[in-house]
Amino acid sequence: MTASHDNMNIFDRSLLRRRRDRAASGIGEHAFLYEEVAARLADRLLDVNRNFPLALDLGCHGGSMTDAMQATSRAPATILQADLSPRMAAAAAARTGQPAFAADEEFLPVAEGSLDLITSCLSLHWVNDLPGALLQIRKSLKADGFFLGALLGGDTLFELRRCLQDAEAELHGALSPRLSPLTDVRDAGGLLQRAGFALPVVDSDTIEVTYENAFRLMADLRGMGETNAVVERRKANPGKQLFLRAAELYQQRFAEPDGRLLATFQVLYLSGWSPHESQQQPLRRGSASQRLADALSTEEQPLKH
Prior knowledge:
Helix 2 runs parallel beside helix 3. It is built from 10 helices and 7 strands. The protein is 36% helix and 20% strand. It has a single domain (13-276), classed as Rossmann fold. The chain starts with 12 loop residues before the first helix and ends in a 10-residue tail after the last helix. It is α/β, with parallel strands linked by helices. It has a 7-stranded mixed sheet, sandwiched between helices. The chain has helices spanning 13-24, 32-46, 64-70, 86-96, 130-140, 158-172, 185-194, 214-224, 240-254, 292-295; strands at 54-58, 78-83, 100-102, 115-121, 141-152, 198-211, 261-273. The relative contact order is 0.16.
């Protein structure tokens, strides 16, 4: 789950920024997950019968989402790109030719009611105050503006999580947070409603990837800037033995018949509209014009007291 600033900070955002800065120069070698999810988001955007002149790609990484939108028949005329990391923003601008700037999703520097579309591809799972970030996104949209985002869900990398936990319990007799807590699909719809979005929709998808070994998976996570940034993480160097044992457990438990290791990424897709009077509204209670019993071809039975 994601906490608000009023309670605690789960993630060290300054550490996350530094790790993204380091990853920016080589992001193209490790961006397969961003590329895949961006393509799926762009496909979903094509299903929306609307043109969006001015868009913001929030948490743009190296420009995967903007590039995917530009390849569609309904690409926004202008796509602003923003990332917590200045170097990631620069990499996105160089790739896409669209303007980019550094910005924190928790303190969005965008005028209210200024954007037609906001997208976010695999960035919001690092936000401490997700309800607050969604509220800022909704306020930044024009009336009847659209938000479309994807973030990692709670079942992501459950294989690696279990192996790291068991290895640490075996070697040290205690556990520390080594992978980030993630949002549950059941909570995501409520977060959109809480932020004031109309017609919210949430669904999930699973992407399975195979690796030669656990260390190749960990290298990809470092290359994407997606390694542990939990504030309460253990600061001391855990030593090689922990990761060697975790890799051994991973091989024993999750190897495919060909010996490669399965890694699961759960992706949550969120969408919603900034409210507008033209949007479909729910009927008032008691205003139905047809009886449910008639629709079901049955007899209506009065309640017995």
